[in-house]
UniProtKB/TrEMBL annotation:
Region feature Disordered, mapped onto this chain: 226-330, 366-395, 533-557
Domain of life: Eukaryota
GO biological process per UniProt: nucleolar large rRNA transcription by RNA polymerase I; transcription initiation at RNA polymerase I promoter
Compositional bias annotation for Basic residues: 273-285, 316-329
One Gene Ontology term of the molecular function aspect: rDNA binding
GO CC, alphabetical: RNA polymerase I upstream activating factor complex
Biased composition (Basic and acidic residues): 286-296
Start-end of Pro residues biased regions: 246-258
Protein name: Uncharacterized protein
UniProt source species: Mycena pura
Length: 644
């Protein structure tokens, strides 16, 4: 590993982390923006970040990002920036060409050198990250004193948290399968129907705290006689025996409900859920009838897989009372030592003996292995029809049933249980929205790509990468929802008073609105993949159809007219086929769908000015090439003192 290259790489990492964290060497100074706004350096950083993310036309979103400023303060700051930009002299405004660094193009030798250094960095970087994490944890432990009474408890909690982080730092395909199993089990428990909620019982008070006369009145529905009231008045104590308890007794705890006791109410389900429930119960009944068992018709979704059988029930099976006789074949052939075959009738066959031979045919050098032999009635010895195996035979076949071990996913699942990783951990990390086993199958494509090579590929993914995918998904879906709702609101405003449109459910977003929102997010670019040929070149025209010859010129223009006339033929898909700009605000002038390349250049272009501009660009390109050569020479001198 080149030391200069390593130092340059570390410097680049420090710069990148400082840029992402917003730590600059020259922060913006604090200032007062009239009428009543004092902006600190931190608030200015948040303001300019929100200005890039949103727009100057959304001061409400910028104020929400800064959190310490109002919309009026944000508008005042934007106006101050506009006034300063207008008042600045022209010579003080730096040009974009001179302020930005140009992109440098290097030679193939430098690219090869960086590839070699990058392969070494890939191997060393995980070790650096592990050492850095251990150093950070040791610093955290040293920051707490050992004499603190809660130090041992805090250290144990931190160690458990670090064990969870280490377990999720590198996820293989089996890890993803185990996490997906945790997700499915949690979903099954959540979907189990809860028992009907009973009324909260009122706390029971002691009868000694109630007046005996009132207790006698409340215990009997009928009217008590006068003598009973008199006796109750006489038995009433002068002072209470017990003082009232100001604390209410705890509520009685009920055992965990059995999920199979409470079934789903079909009346509270949607039609699709009722169909799924009916299909589930029907298939469960069919499987039970095929297996000869009683079907469990509870509406709760059962766990997948077979029921687990214990080891005792597998080993200690009940002895059958009747045995089914085995029928022998018509003829059984026995190969003797000379290679001849003799036939025996089933009536003269006796049980099988194991005979061991240790003979060698000198002619062909073949060995005769041990095997079963069938004896006749004439050759039967005095064993009373029983064949005793030879104790000297060591290679007699024996059937051994080994204990079935756990799969890799189950081993990892047990490890997760030991370290306290469960469904709540996945919910805290935000991974409960993913089908992690499908992500593992996608990672398995890497193994299939390198199946023919000798290189061993160990594909894994970090939990931080999965979190990043989740954030990207949430950002995409939230933006899609906002745009779909906005499109629906604009559609309702435009079509509410037009009789030809029937908007029965104005508060619901139609699928066409979602399709328009997807089109606004440029999701339709995935169709460009169909234009790429097998050799990787996109030579297929934009509207090419397989098996149809392409036309050019006037024929193509006539096809455009036909296509435009066929746009609105289907009434059922009329709304979905119109693009959003034509649906909301149609244009007065329809632009041509295709423009010829020859018409891009205006016929009134001054050729002399064009040639002069091209000459300037050529000179500028020569200057860039000289700067690139000088830059590469500087790089080689910084690495090893000269170009090899």
């Amino acid at each position: 590993m080149s030391e200069p290259y390593l130092s340059d790489y570390e410097y680049h990492l420090r710069q990148l982390r400082a840029h992402l964290a917003g730590d600059t060497d020259q922060p913006l100074p604090s200032s007062f923006i009239p009428p009543a706004g004092y902006w600190t350096s931190r608030e200015k950083d948040l303001f300019f970040h929100a200005l890039v993310v949103h727009s100057r036309f959304r001061p409400d979103l910028i104020a929400a990002s800064v959190k310490s400023k109002t919309i009026i303060d944000v508008c005042a700051y934007i106006d101050a920036l506009d006034q300063a930009a207008v008042a600045a002299p022209p010579f003080q405004m730096p040009s974009l060409r001179s302020s930005l660094n140009g992109a440098m193009e290097v030679s193939e030798s430098w690219v090869q050198h960086e590839e070699e250094q990058a392969s070494i960095l890939i191997e060393m970087e995980p070790e650096w990250e592990r050492e850095g994490e251990e150093h950070r944890r040791s610093k955290l432990l040293e920051s707490r004193s050992d004499n603190e009474p809660t130090y041992s408890i805090w250290k144990e909690e931190q160690q458990g948290l670090w064990d969870k982080q280490d377990s999720l730092a590198k996820l293989s395909i089996h890890h993803l399968q185990a996490l997906d199993k945790l997700n499915r089990n949690a979903d099954t428990r959540c979907h189990e129907i809860e028992p009907p909620s009973a009324d909260i019982p009122t706390p029971a008070f002691d009868d000694s705290l109630i007046d005996p006369a009132l207790l006698a009145l409340s215990s009997s529905p009928a009217r008590l006689p006068a003598n009973a009231l008199a006796s109750a008045e006489q038995d009433r104590p002068l002072t209470p025996e017990f003082s009232p308890n100001p604390f209410s007794p705890p509520l009685p705890s009920s055992p965990n409900p059995n999920p199979h006791v409470f079934d789903l109410d079909p009346g509270q389900l949607s039609p699709a859920s009722r169909r799924r429930l009916a299909k589930r119960l029907h298939m469960r009944k069919q499987r039970a009838e095929a297996a000869g068992k009683e079907a469990d018709m509870a509406s709760v979704k059962l766990l997948p897989g077979r029921k687990k059988t214990t080891e005792d029930s597998r080993l200690h099976k009940s002895r059958p009372k009747k045995y089914k006789p085995r029928k022998a074949g018509k003829w059984i052939q026995e190969a003797d030592l000379q290679g001849k075959a003799t036939k025996h009738k089933p009536s003269k066959l006796k049980p099988v003996k194991w005979i061991h031979f240790d003979l060698q045919d000198e002619a062909n050098g073949s060995h005769v292995a041990a095997g079963p032999s069938v004896t006749n009635a004439e050759d039967e010895d005095d064993t009373n029809g029983l064949s005793v195996p030879d104790p000297d035979v060591n290679n007699a076949p024996t059937v051994r049933h080994g204990k079935r071990g756990l799969t890799s996913a189950h081993k990892i699942l047990s490890l997760f249980e030991e370290r306290g990783i469960n469904a709540n951990t996945l919910i805290e990390c935000g991974l409960d929205i993913f089908n992690l086993s499908a992500l593992g199958k996608l990672m398995g494509l890497i193994h299939s790509a390198y199946a023919d090579s000798d290189e061993k590929i160990d594909s894994s993914i970090s939990i931080e990468t999965v979190k990043l995918l989740r954030n990207i998904l949430l950002d995409f879906v939230s933006t899609l929802i906002h745009r779909a709702i906005s499109i629906r609101e604009q559609e309702v405003l435009l079509k509410r008073k037009i009789k030809v449109w029937r908007l029965d459910k104005e508060d619901e977003v139609a699928p066409a609105n979602v399709a328009d929102a997807l089109q606004m997010q440029a999701l339709s670019t995935h169709s460009l993949l169909s234009e790429v040929t097998e050799d990787g070149e996109g030579d297929v025209p934009h509207d090419a159809t397989p098996g149809v010859p392409q036309v050019e010129g006037e024929d193509r223009q006539s096809d455009d007219i036909v296509e435009q006339s066929l746009v609105v033929e289907d009434d059922s898909s009329f709304h979905a086929r119109l693009p959003p700009h034509r649906e909301i605000a149609p244009l007065f002038v329809t632009m041509p769908r295709r423009v010829d390349d020859e018409q891009l250049m205006s016929t009134t272009t001054d050729e002399e000015e064009l040639l002069a501009e091209l000459d300037d660009e050529w000179e500028l390109d020569k200057l860039d090439r000289r700067l690139e050569a000088r830059y590469e020479t500087t790089l080689w001198q910084a690495m090893n003192g000269g170009k090899p």
